[in-house]
UniProtKB/TrEMBL annotation, chain A:
Keywords: Cytoplasm, Hydrolase, Nucleus, Protease, Proteasome, Threonine protease, Zymogen. The proteasome is a multicatalytic proteinase complex which is characterized by its ability to cleave peptides with Arg, Phe, Tyr, Leu, and Glu adjacent to the leaving group at neutral or slightly basic pH. The proteasome has an ATP-dependent proteolytic activity. Its main location: cytoplasm. This is Proteasome subunit beta. It comes from Hevea brasiliensis (Para rubber tree). It catalyses: Cleavage of peptide bonds with very broad specificity. It is found in: Cytoplasm; Nucleus. PROSITE patterns: PROTEASOME_BETA_1 (PS00854), PROTEASOME_BETA_2 (PS51476).
Automatic annotation (TrEMBL), chain B:
PROSITE patterns: PROTEASOME_ALPHA_1, PROTEASOME_ALPHA_2. The keyword Protein biosynthesis does not apply. It comes from the Eukaryota. NCBIfam families: PRK03996.1. Gene3D superfamilies: Glutamine Phosphoribosylpyrophosphate, subunit 1, domain 1 (3.60.20.10). Belongs to the peptidase T1A family. The keyword Disulfide bond does not apply. The proteasome is a multicatalytic proteinase complex which is characterized by its ability to cleave peptides with Arg, Phe, Tyr, Leu, and Glu adjacent to the leaving group at neutral or slightly basic pH. This is Proteasome subunit alpha type. Keywords: Cytoplasm, Nucleus, Proteasome. It comes from Hevea brasiliensis (Para rubber tree).
Length: 272, 249
């Protein structure tokens, strides 16, 4: 008895299957494979090349009032900062958010695709999809593309019938349920601030400030993170963007320049 | 007309799909089955044709469960029923796997009806010759539901319905006597509807009750006999009250 695996089926082609005979509607788009002696090695190299270091900092945590989601906005290509204003928090639908870490195109595309699937679920079943269900749909898709070079490290945060929900989903096919996550090259720094300041019974303002500080500190130490620290709040009525502060300005807000006592003053010397 | 009833995929000039209508005939020859929705229970009942002496009665269960919170009874071809039920059970588990949630009654009804419809629009196959009554509770809201599907693939929700042999008389009885009930009253209503068309007695009726807390429970023959006795007593009392002239004018 075969289990129905249509939800797990890959839309991408199996290796080496290119056939003009196969009807275009039923087969997945296929491409020609490169001619090499060591295809596996070539594949591994390609994946390593594509696998970016996920230059970013994103974080999310559940607290008494809901879920707080925050991210920076820098995109880097190696040492070049390609953009300081990337939207890394993706609005899947009015009550669910996704964060972007890894390949920007991969994250954007698959989050939009997830939004479509969530909407279809709503229309078919006359009720919203749960955060559990949405994250599972995304995880199943990413799992079916495992090993093909997708780079996605995302958190799905939302509020459903069972309350606030937070899941971490990545392109290796992993999916974790949790209360505190941070993803990206700046995540160790963000974790430091987040974990030491976290309490379940924070108020919304306190939680937003904690998230903002954590992102700021990560951008301070991590070269691949920077730009604007965006903070979103997900509550029973959906998500709301709370703030978007330039991290340079945040720095001077947290560590204002103190006027120091002048030791020596330079005086105009009258022409000798 | 004979030319238009061989293949399922051929419409007749006046818009009939004869194979589907013949499938409905097969349903009308099947066992009488009834379903009633109460406020906190759902009840399924089916007529039990007397089992042969050497037959193991336990292997002919007519009321089956699709998942912990969903049950189904069908009228029509039993072999088709087995296949359909298996597919539905797989879909229930597959849904749990992909969205980590149990199915709603409406979802699985839609799936079964979709399956039945698929077999009315493919070449070389015939429709499933059965109608189903599907009952269950919504996994989150706890609301009870009763749905019916038929060989054409249509489905709808009902407060109470009957299918199979003499379903029209049962449905008429239900329409006349249906009230919002709960618990034992719902069971009694289902049995009374069945008794309209089935010989009285616990060994001719199979009843299953589903509640949110305890899931599906098949009633024992003795229990059914007791309720039937109650019903007969009530009927007799009502008859007597009608016949005797009123004491006060």
């Amino acid at each position: 008895m075969k289990l129905d695996t249509s939800g797990l089926e890959s839309a991408a082609p199996l290796f080496g299957v290119t056939s003009e005979l196969v009807d275009g509607f039923s087969s997945a788009p296929s491409f020609e494979l490169p001619v090499t002696t060591d295809f596996d090695g070539f594949q591994k190299e390609a994946i390593q090349m594509v696998k970016p270091a996920r230059g970013t900092t994103t974080l999310a945590f559940i607290f008494k009032e809901g879920v707080m989601v925050a991210a920076d906005s820098r995109a880097s290509m190696g040492g070049y900062i390609s953009s300081q204003s990337v939207k890394k928090i993706i609005e899947i639908n009015p009550y669910m958010l996704g964060t972007m870490a890894g390949g920007a195109a991969d994250c954007q595309f698959w989050h939009r695709n997830l939004g479509i699937k969530c909407r279809l679920h709503e229309l078919a079943n006359k009720r919203r999809i749960s955060v559990t269900g949405a994250s599972k749909l995304l995880a199943n898709i990413l799992y079916s593309y495992r090993g093909m070079g997708l780079s996605v490290g995302t958190m799905i945060a939302g509020w459903d019938e069972t309350g606030p929900g937070l899941y971490y989903v990545d392109s290796e096919g992993g999916r974790l349920k949790g209360t505190r996550f941070s993803v990206g090259s700046g995540s160790p720094y963000a974790y430091g601030v987040l974990d030491s300041g976290y309490r379940y019974d924070l108020s919304i303002e306190e939680a937003a400030e904690l998230a903002r500080r954590a992102i700021y500190h990560a951008t301070f130490r991590d070269g691949a993170s920077g730009g604007v620290a965006s903070v979103y709040y997900v509550g029973p009525n959906g998500w709301k963007k709370l703030s978007g502060d330039d991290v340079g300005e945040l720095h001077y807000k947290y560590y204002p320049v103190m006027p120091s006592t002048v030791e020596q003053e330079m005086v105009e010397v009258a022409g000798a | 007309m004979a030319r238009y009833d061989r293949a399922i995929t051929v419409f007749s000039p006046d818009g009939h799909l004869f194979q589907v209508e013949y499938a409905l005939e097969a349903v009308r020859k099947g066992n009488a089955a009834v379903g009633v929705r109460g406020t906190d229970v759902v009840v399924l009942g089916v007529e039990k044709k007397s089992t042969a002496k050497l037959q193991d009665a336990r292997s002919v269960r007519k009321i089956v469960s699709l998942d912990d919170h969903i049950a189904l009874v069908c009228a029509g071809l039993k072999a088709d029923a087995r296949v359909l039920v298996n597919r539905a059970r797989i879909e229930c588990q597959s849904h749990r796997l992909t969205v980590e949630d149990p199915v709603t009654v409406e979802y699985i009804t839609r799936y079964i009806a979709g399956l039945q419809q698929k077999y009315t629009q493919s070449g070389g196959v015939r429709p499933f010759g059965l109608s189903t009554l599907i009952v269950g509770f919504d996994p989150y809201t706890g609301v009870p539901s009763l749905y019916q599907t038929d060989p054409s693939g249509a489905f709808s929700a009902w407060k109470a319905n009957a299918t199979g042999r003499n379903s029209n008389s049962m449905r008429e009885f239900l329409e006349k006597n249906y009230k919002e009930t709960s618990g034992q009253e719902t069971v009694k209503l289902a049995i009374r509807a069945l008794l309209e068309v089935v010989e009285s007695g616990g060994k001719n009726i199979e009843i299953a009750v589903m509640t949110k807390e305890h899931g599906l429970r098949q009633l024992e023959e003795a229990e059914i006999d007791a309720i039937v006795a109650e019903i007969e007593a009530e009927k007799a009392a009502a008859e007597a009250a009608k016949k005797a002239p009123p004491k006060e004018t």
